[in-house]
Amino acid sequence: MYPELKLFIAGEWRKTYRDMPVVNPANEKVLGSLPMASTSDLDDALNAAEQGFRIWSRTSPRERSDTILRAAKLMRERQEEIARSITLELGKPLQQARLEVIRGAEFFEWDAGEAMRTYGRIIPAAQGHKFAVHHIPIGVVAAFSPWNFPFSQPARKIAGALASGCSIILKAAEETPAGAVHIARAFQDAGLPPGVLNLVFGNPAEISGYLIPQDPVRLVAFTGSTTVGRHLTTLASENMTPVLMELGGHAPVIVCEDTDAHLAATFGAIRKLRNSGQVCTSPTRFFVHESIFEAFATTFTARAAATIVGNPMDDGIEMGPTANDRRVPVLTDLVEDARAKGATVATGGTRYGNTGFFFQPTVLMNVPEDARIMQEEPFGPIAVINPVASLDEAIAQANSVPYGLAGYAFTNRADYIDQMIDEVEVGNLSINTLEASMPETPFGGVKSSGYGREGGSEGLDKYMTVKHVWHSAKIS
């Protein structure tokens, strides 16, 4: 079920002389061989993207929308094939992978509609003069997507670019390349003109260092770590190239005293362990009012410990492995640091099994502020649960990190909700739900979690540039 991996440039698939293995994180077996782009391949992609932009930017919004919708329909029809590829390369349970395919298709479907709503405006002017504002495609986009959502993350970048009339060169993640390959195949079959979508893989630093300074590149769109995002922003700034950055998070969850502690804890544990915790919006730092702390922590720990871990292809599995061999040592170090500084390991805390990159569902309680995990995003199946005496204390703790991507809260008090809307420093605040975004809502962060928004009516803004036209009826 795993596809043959190739680059997609100028509407054609190609192999290269360099390649690297793609490994199944559940059993450490090689799935396939991934071609690595050379400088010549990147030059071809740039030339193809320039030519593709000239065609696509002149294509009517209706035609662009129709092509995107045809591709999305193919993705829905191929859901099972795509989902199995995702599960093999990422280790996500198959049912979760199926949902990711549908979510990716929904991104395309939403942006296909937005393609026909990139409205400008007329500004009142003196007689004989017309002021008009046009939103036009910005140009060639260089996009970089992460490994934790192999299908939906490339989908967000490609959907925004294509709906806006841009062409795109996507460097998808080398560890989980199949999702992007499936997207490119769907667009090829849907009749997308050659060069509008180009897909490359390779050494991330080499590709970003080569592509970003190139004159044809007019926007850099990136999802990934804050450290890499800052580096790419610096590269782009040297050429005055705009950027769209969706960076790391360390999501707080504020649990107020009026909450059903058992229900909130059950939902919290399930959502924390989704995708093995490898989600930039994953609920991680739980700040629970001291009056319900014991009930919440007991239920959360029991649900986490009962999570069914195993081969993500098997029925009933709730959590698979982490995505690569780098995650297990990082997670182990964070747990040991917290333990050494006085935290209680309520469950888990170590590697799971001897084969694959599995880590136990882990709950840390009463974690001191100087523990690394209070500032560093674990990006794995670890939750922190700490008691707080008041909402003010919870908000202060929530805001105590440099990140501000997503935040969550459980309460039914209107005054608490108003205060959190005003004071919690995140780009996405969800109350009584642990869902952070939908295709129709804007998504992005504040502080070190980036800037710009994907999704919603704001989702095409970065892919467009504003042109003002002043038309005088006669020379004046």
List key phrases describing it.
2 domains; 22% strand; 476 residues; Aldehyde Dehydrogenase, Chain A, domain 2; six-stranded mixed beta sheet; alpha/beta
Report a brief summary of the structure.
This protein is of the alpha/beta class. Helix content is 36%, strand content 22%. It has helices at 39-56, 61-77, 79-90, 94-114, 152-164, 178-189, 204-211, 226-237, 261-272, 293-305, 327-340, 391-398, 414-423; strands spanning 7-9, 12-14, 19-23, 30-35, 121-123, 129-137, 140-144, 167-171, 197-200, 217-223, 243-246, 251-255, 283-289, 344-347, 362-365, 382-388, 403-404, 406-410, 428-431, 446-447, 450-451, 464-472.
Describe the structure.
The chain folds into 2 domains: 7-247 and 449-469, 3-Layer(aba) Sandwich (Aldehyde Dehydrogenase, Chain A, domain 1), CATH 3.40.605; 251-438, Aldehyde Dehydrogenase, Chain A, domain 2. Helices cover 36% and strands 22% of the residues. It is built from 13 helices and 22 strands. The strands form 6 sheets. The chain has a 7-stranded mixed beta sheet with strand order 14-15-16-13-12-18-19, sandwiched between helices. A 6-stranded mixed beta sheet has the order 9-8-7-10-11-21, with helices on both faces. A hairpin with a 5-residue loop joins strand 5 (121-123) and strand 6 (129-137). It starts with 6 loop residues before the first strand and ends with a strand.
Per the CATH scheme, the topology name of the largest domain is: Aldehyde Dehydrogenase, Chain A, domain 1
* Average pLDDT for all residues: 97
Kindly name the structural category: alpha/beta
Strand content: 15-25%
Biggest sheet character: 7 strands, mixed
* CATH architecture assignment name of the largest domain: 3-Layer(aba) Sandwich
Could you name the CATH homologous superfamily of the largest domain?
A: Aldehyde Dehydrogenase, Chain A, domain 1
Query: How large, in whole angstroms, is the Cα Rg?
Result: 23 Å
Coarse shape: globular
- Share of residues in helices: 25-40%
Strand order of the largest sheet: 14-15-16-13-12-18-19
**Parts with pLDDT < 50 across at least 5 consecutive residues:** none
Count the helices. How many? Answer: 13
Name of the CATH first level of the largest domain: Alpha Beta
**What is the count of distinct domains?**
2
Distance between the amino and carboxyl termini: 68 Å
| Secondary structure: number of strands | 22
